[in-house]
Amino acid sequence: MKLTRTQLMWLIFCINVGLPIYLSGTMKVTKQDAWFSVILAGVAGFIVLALAVRNAKYFPGQTFIEFTQEVLGKWVGRFWVLPYLAFWMISLGNILRSVVDFIIMALFKETPLTAVVIVLFVVVAFAVATNGINTIARCAELMGPLIVLMFLCIYILNLSNLDFTFLLPIAADTSPLNMARGTFTMMEMYGDSYLLVLVYGFLNKQKGVTPKIYVGFTLAVGLMVLTTTFILLTFGPGLAAKMQYPLYELVRYIEVGEFLQRIEVIMIALWVCSAFIKLGFYLFCLSYGTAQWLGIKKWKLLIIPISVLAVWAAGLTSSLLTTRALLLRYIDPVMIPLLYLILPVILWILILLHRRKKQQAQSGVVPRIPKVSLGWRWSGVTLLILMLSMYYYTYIRYFKV
Questions:
Q1: Residue 256 phi, psi dihedral angles, 5° rounding
Q2: Are the C-beta atoms of 92 and 289 separated by less than 8 Å?
Q3: What is the pLDDT of residues 305-335, one digit of tens each?
Q4: Class of residue 289 by CB neighbours under 10 A (exposed 0-12, middle 13-18, buried 19+)
Q5: Per-residue pLDDT reduced to its tens digit, 35-57
Q6: pTM of the predicted model, to two decimals?
Q7: Cβ–Cβ under 8 Å, residues 213 and 140
Q8: Which H or E run contains 227?
Q9: Rounded-to-integer distance, Cα 342 and Cα 310, Å
């Protein structure tokens, strides 16, 4: 399996272009300043993406599972990636439920949830089992430009509905705490960029790929900023905050004369394609990564059990909003900063030390590694646990969902 630089660019774009439910959560908190929260979340997501690129590019041809074991050792490396696999499994079920709830609301209101979940994920699993990441990347390369064109058409057709007074006052009614809450809601989506560490090793040419990765991510964030702004300018912050799928409502609002109506069907088709790419990307990363973690050579054998777990997780609760509320309140506050910021920074430092030690060994110089007592090591671990506990308490106390 090999990826081109263009395929990876559009893959990063498609997994970050957004699900409609994330925008509604941000607008409920930050109202007319939601567009600024999306920008802040994009900056945070850019840092996560930069850490992923920085850590992965040092080990060409290797995935996250492989180079962590090379740097940290076999058992420590396996323990290091275990929280990632568990959190990505939870995220896969949450994304699947988001997609299915939207499809039922827009197209199949009388269809049972289980039927849509199974049919959708059978298609996703078949695509991944056919040719792995290549199938998903080629779909992203095909659908990415069409999705961009769809967003541009939405903006152009809504120009006559804009009211710029809806953005006023700017940064006057939103407290810094609410701005942080809105940013964190969107950060749940942009954190997906860190999965790049599992597919970076499949690139056929790594030269010049970094700018294209950043272009794909920046394009996705830019479209989300424009989309949020157009929703606010069309409906106002009060009405937009009450919508579960504001982007869908924005497309339904388009009406040019009496000959151009009901174009939301096209939007639904393209958005489902984007969701298909995101689900396929998650399924491949989990199947391939788990197989490497378990030492299984035939990674496709894990597609079925992981698909079953995803379907079970998607139907675990009776309401998607309840699931997201639980994730935002109890799981995401710890897992997102830990997995996408703290551990990647620590891993980056360890990779630099590992490379320095390897270069010194190759040059014949005996590396001088400072001895750290066991007490200091446990003190560092204790400090990290205390910091996470304080952060968790602060989030539960003030960031109410």
A1: -110, 105
A2: no
A3: 888 888 887 776 555 555 555 665 666 667 7
A4: buried
A5: 888 888 888 888 888 888 888 88
A6: 0.83
A7: no
A8: helix 209-242
A9: 27
